[in-house]
Amino acid sequence: MRKFKNLWIIMVFVLVFSLVACSTKDASKPEEVVENVEVEVEKEKLFPFEFTDFMDREIVLEKEPKRIVSLAPSITELLYALGAGDRIVGVTDYDNYPPEVEELPKMGGYKGANVEAITAQNPDLVFASPQAGKEEVEAIENLGIPVVVLEARDIEGIYESIRLLGRITGTEEKGEEIIGEMEARIEEVKEKVEGLPRPDVFHLLSLNGNWTSGKGTFIDELITIAGGNNVAGDIEGWGQYSAEEVVNRNPQVIITSPNAGSVEDIRNAEGFKETAAVKDGNICVLSNDDIIVRASNRIILGLEEIAKFLHPEVFD
Length: 316
Prior knowledge:
By secondary structure, the chain is of the alpha/beta class. The chain has twelve helices and twelve strands.
């Protein structure tokens, strides 16, 4: 009789345990739904989002954008880096990175953006640079599409751009990760070149007119961080140097890009052929222009290329 009693108790225990397990399993589904709802509620709390863009324009975004048009290659690069590239529905004719942007609809150039093409994509936000064109920006906004203007002039400005883009697209954590990586790589370059001789550097933007980069340009900041001295640091922005002035400055290093003119042309150009840079064979041709002129996280690649050329002895 006791055996039957014990068996009965065991059966009851198993039945109760099974019911509790089923109840717990079923309860997980509502919890998942609740979690999803909480995430959506948290996102809603972030909007409307009021802020000032890089042109001191007061902007109010009512909701997180899902369809974005980018009118600057640098902004496109940052959006992809943040993981928001899948929201981009239009880019400029000059966008080329990452490779997948080649397949996206084109919205025109930096200036004179194609308003009709933009509206056809039904975006809920347009990012632009100051070069986008005032009339075009106003035309887009008059159609009820908000436009946010970004214009980073230095590396700190790139950080600001990343933080703003991250806040708008809900990718703030990734943004801080990108900034942290940039800061670490910059610090590594600074530590390696600290105390080393600083060669005089001339950045040749274009051999046609001897265009160069002065204060307020990314290349000026990159040359300084990389352990060099920009001989054109006495001018503001971009400017032209005469052949005589190039000779007078006598740079020890010339930094240029594939589009500025061939190395052979530089060696034979008036003014340049008499410089220490040409005589010693110190002409650095960067892999491309984009990594020194675009306000994106890839500018670190430009910095590292320059630093390795100026001070190869401290880089592997």
